[in-house]
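Re-run with default settings, no changes from the original entry. Doing this only to confirm the output is reproducible before filing.
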Amino acid sequence: MQIYNGLGRRKSAVARVYLREGKGNIVINGRDMKDYFQSELLQYVVMQPLNVLNVGGNFDIKVTLDGGGVKGQAEAVRLGISRALVEYNPDNKPTLKANGFMTRDSRSVERKKPGRPKARKRFQFSKR
């Protein structure tokens, strides 16, 4: 049985996705998706590429997640699943791209600058 890979990143989260034909099980770091992402919204974000293509129950997905917060992790998984689905069938790409699932969101936290409390914030100015 063929295994298809996809790597998804968002902020500081990295998701390695392994997709193969199966019954629709999604396992993230050894736990079921509904246990890992308890929020309905995050579960929806993860399932978006599968729902758009109507292939929700056709694939077993194993994900290794590292870093980031829950929202960044969910969006990293979404990108990884999208890339794996394109590797499985390149005809899926236009549909996924039209829904915005193939674009890596490059925004991340700006680094702290020396002599300032945060990246852009300045200390309070005192005239005297």
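The longest helix spans residues 70-88. The chain has a mean pLDDT of 93.
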